[in-house]
Amino acid sequence: MRKTLLLAFALLFSLSVFSQENIYIINESFDETTLPQGWTKMGSGTNNWYISTSNIAGGKPNELHLQWTPPFNGIARFVSPAVDLTDVSSAIMSLKHYPSFFGNNTATVGVATSSDNGSTWNKVWSQQYDANGQYTVLENITSPDMGKSSVMFCFYFEGNSYNISDWYFDDFEVYTVQDLNVELTSIDVPNNVKFGPRAISFTVYNTGNSSIESLVATYTVNGETESQTFFSNIPSLEYKQLTFSSKYNFAPGEEYDLTIEVTKLNDSDEELTDIVLSKEIASGLSQTQRTPMIEHFSSSTCGPCVAVNTLMATLTENHEGEYTYTKYTSNGPGLGDPYFTEEGGTRMTYYNVMGVPQTFLDGVDQGYSAVSEDSFVASQGTPAFADVRGTFSIEGNTIEVAADFMSYINMEEVRAFITINEKTTTGNASTNGETEFHHVMMKMLENANGNIMSIKAGEHQHLEFTFDMTSTNVEEMDDLEVALWLQNYETMEVYNSHYAYESDVHVYPVRNMSALMNGSALRISWSAPEAGNPVGYNVYVNGTLEAENINALEYVKDNANQTHKTAEVVAIYENGTSVPVAKIIGIDDNVNEITTNDISIYPNPARDFVRLTAQGTQLTTVKVYNCLGMMVEEIEVSANEIEINISEYNTGIYFFNIETVNGNAVKKVVKR
Predict the structure, then answer these.
(1) pLDDT class for 237, splitting at 50, 70, 90?
(2) Averaged pLDDT, 504-512
């Protein structure tokens, strides 16, 4: 936890103007589970301040929380321990906070100082708010208490607590600045990127009193380093995003450590140290369209929920077919919604939901309001590096769900979530005047903690469930929908989502896909899905549709001379499409087809055994498929000859996919 600092400010003037440390008077982030030591409550609302485990204000969990109940009308203060401001005439104050309102109300919050133990308070900043949202305050502050030896700071709320639902505060800092100083605030490269050349951007914050005229920065990616001098006027206490002129070429399917360091300011000969940030970057094989995932916490006993439900109905009507939506009913206020479930309570705990209404978009808290049009459109425009598809069918009170989760990056310990929702309910109507509700969650499969899985880039994981809905609150079995999404459980990021299709046939992806280079020609082949009856296949190369709705199980692209090539195949069904199966080829590690003359197989036709022999190379793997494209057997080899027992095979035609150290070949064998 960051502690409140009692400082000897005589040290300030002995520091070099190039000191990289600001002098903190207060540096409090409310990270503990109890109110910070030495802080006190004064005035009204002394029972309304506590520490919440949330991070709604924009910092890390935990944070200071002012709630409206028990109600009061006056000034509520949360007061710091006294600090020594001798010889300090001004300071910088920064604060993150989030107001949440009931209806169209307003309220005032501010920061004040006192040097007479709270008898007199002098405002250093105040603001009236009328809208929910995250706000960051950055102010150069002065007050009559500057220069005094014992000064307290306070947050204060002024007005009727009925006007708000909650107010959250985090990362409260008061500090003096050096003449020339900088903070590296962010690396502005997404955690997941599509492969290829990409600009490296970062943001700095001028924490000094003087303008920054030039800045030297270096980026390092997996040991490769690039330095640049940036000439840009950055005034005191302002942010600036900078971009290296040299792009970095990310290879597909790889993971990178990216580090950025600022080393010099204003042509100084003195090297800066420890102004550095790092992050891990995953380069995807490809990217796909994102379907925004909306999670909505509400209750039929909640008055403010009505307005949010109305706004959400408008949003979804304007974007029909473009979203995935699950609504969890709450056990409050009062007795709560009659359709509340413990699974919904688990999701409330996961997201630190303290009250309703509250919405989340792709795992990001939208506050106690509806998802905005701007936020929804921004989500749609953000590339996704995972895809989700599934189907469900209903017989009586039983529902069967099958789902596939595919990724373009390596994902470890992610969670696949499946909710069975009822599109419209009426039986949970209660005290808020609403008579029908939408997308109400009835069951989570397998449970509310999700299904843990690891997915390699270009591959997929499959889930199937059968559940009797008799024990749920379902009203009409023919009014169900199934929401699917893939989520990072630690960061809460939702990678992608989709509604399942209602169908007796699941949209299975293709199998056994391979992409082989023969000179400049790219040959893509695959086996039919394990079930279902696709009406055709779409083939993509480097994200571009190359062949649409073809019936063959292979496609050849000539003149495929890009440095890196990503091949994808999607099975097309009458009721939707399967998740793609992706294969990556790099120009430096192409797999070439060898001629069929290099491989001999006999006898053919055969009844009991066949013998494979490779000329001038060594066998590595033999995969045997039947005429339906189903793998019958896979055999690892480390010789130039092998005998395979086919006596247990059914009579018919089989395809032997033969891999060698020099390339691959396919042989057809007839089993008698």
Answers:
(1) confident
(2) 89
- Does 233 lie in the same domain as 118? no
Distances (CA, A) of 256 to 9, 195, 288, 487, 491: 43, 12, 21, 21, 19
pLDDT in tens, 400-435: 999 999 999 999 999 999 999 999 999 999 999 999
Distance of alpha carbon 201 from alpha carbon 146, whole angstroms: 39
Q: 304 with 236, same domain?
A: no
pLDDT for 562 equals 56
Question: What whole-number distance in Å separates Cα of residue 382 and Cα of residue 190?
Answer: 10
For 466-480, the pLDDT digits (tens) are: 999 999 999 999 999
The pLDDT of residue 597: 60
The residues, ordered by sequence, that sit 6+ positions from 428 with a Cβ below 8 Å of its Cβ are 300, 329, 337, 338, 339, 437, 440, 473
At 227 the pLDDT is 96
Average pLDDT over residues 504-511: 89
Helix (H, G, I), strand (E, B) or coil at 222: coil
336 falls within a domain: yes
How far is it, in rounded angstroms, from Cα 319 to Cα 137? 35
* Residue finishing a domain among 555, 589, 623: 589
d(CA 575, CA 572): 8
Location of structure tokens 């089993």: 671
Length of the chain in terms of residues written: 672
- Domain co-membership, 349 together with 213: no
Indicate the helix (H) or strand (E) that contains 377.
helix 373-380
Cα torsion angle, 54, 56, 62, 65, sign: negative
CATH number (domain holding residue 298) = 2.60.40.10
**Cβ neighbours of 265 (radius 10 Å):** 24
Better-predicted residue by pLDDT, 4 or 43 = 43
Provide the pLDDT for residue 19: 40
Same structural domain, 494 and 368? yes
Same domain, 628 and 574: no
Q: Which residues pair with 391 in a beta bridge?
A: 402, 501
Per the structure, the complete domain to which residue 160 belongs is given by 9-176
The tokens for 211 are 């303008």
Cβ atoms of 577 and 570 within 8 Å: the answer is yes
Contacts of 367 (CB under 8 A, 6+ apart): 56, 98, 100, 132, 133, 134, 358, 359
What average pLDDT score do residues 163-168 get?
91
Q: What is the average per-residue pLDDT within 636-642?
A: 90
280 and 165 share a domain?
no
Whether 447 is in a domain gets the answer yes
Buried residues in 573-600 as b, exposed as e (16+ CB within 10 A):
beebbbbbbbbbbeeeebbebbeeebbe
Domain count, the chain: 5
Model pLDDT, residue 592 = 47
Encode pLDDT of 257-282 as tens digits.
999 999 999 988 888 889 999 999 99
Place of tokens 């005439």: 89
Judgement on whether residues 23 and 150 belong to the same structural domain of the protein:
yes
Q: How does strand 663-671 pair with strand 652-660?
A: antiparallel
Determine if the peptide bond prior to 357 is cis (ω within 30°): yes
Q: Is the entire prediction scored with pTM above 0.85?
A: no
Last residue of a domain, one of 153, 176, 199: 176
Question: Measured between alpha carbons, how far is 323 from 379 in angstroms, rounded to an integer?
Answer: 10
pLDDT of residue 429: 98
pLDDT band at residue 630 under the 50/70/90 scheme = low
In SS3 terms, 473-494 reads as CCCCHHHEEEEEEEECCCCCCE
Sheet holding 107-114, edge to edge: 40-43, 73-79, 152-160, 107-114, 122-129
Are 60 and 130 in the same domain?
A: yes
